[in-house]
Amino acid sequence: MLKFIRMPVLATITAIMLLITGCGSNVAGNSATNDASATAGTDNGGAEQVELLVSAATSLTESLDELKSIYEAEHGNIKLTYNYAASGTLQQQIEQGAPADLFLSAGKKQMNALLDKRLVDAELTTNLLTNELVLVVPQDGSVQLETIKDLTNIGDIAIGTPESVPAGKYAQQTLAYHKLWDSLQSRLVLTKDVKQVLSYVETGNVDAGFVYKTDAALSDKVKVALSAEPESHDPIEYPVGVLKGSSHPDEAKAFYEFLLSGEARQVFSKFGFTPAK
What we know:
Blueprint: H1 2-40, E1 42-43, E2 47-48, E3 50-57, H2 61-74, E4 78-85, H3 87-95, E5 102-104, H4 108-116, E6 120-130, E7 133-138, E8 157-160, H5 166-177, E9 188-191, H6 194-202, E10 208-212, H7 213-216, E11 222-227, E12 237-243, H8 249-259, H9 262-270, E13 274-275
Parallel strand pairs: 3-4, 3-5, 8-9, 8-10
Antiparallel strand pairs: 1-2, 5-12, 6-12, 6-13, 7-10, 7-11
Helix pairs in contact: 2-9, 3-4
């Protein structure tokens, strides 16, 4: 009788011990999984992954895309995400609370507006590049221009919307300088950014358009007919600044300093920009 009673007790004890051992294994397994997940969320020797949001003028697209590859290869924990648009549009987005760590503008006006509102760190703001304004026409030679006055003899002319596109503002100033702004009003096609101006000329939707020298150099479908005289418009400057509201101020400062480096200057020069002195 006693032997009959002891057998179930022994089996019960054995089952409990197996259950405890199994739970211990699960805890250890979960801990290992959590450690692996934590490791997977970091890179570059365990450094936390950081995404930097950069709002930049569309004319910087090609040069910044190349710099992205270089910088991310050298900084494994950094991911650069670009928001390309007209400088005035980006300025408004930032003023309305859009997240950004750095701002690269194609005009001082937009950067100064953000500085006045204390949205950009004045200690981490500087002029980065300069550019030139040119008038382009289709490569096929269907439009001939000897002087800027010849714009009165052709069809539509594309420029960026002056209120939001710095290249458009420079174009407006140039046309006003030559006393053509008023007389050409009916033939001006306003665009959302300078890249759209280039596209309109490439596709023949307009006869000519004002773009930056750097944009014209990227296309084999247009040619430069004329260059705007420097005295006909405000200096074309590209300032860069770190936003005060940056979620990653240290990393933003490091990328800001990289953009000022000799390595970055070589890339900008490759695409036709002139590094600021």
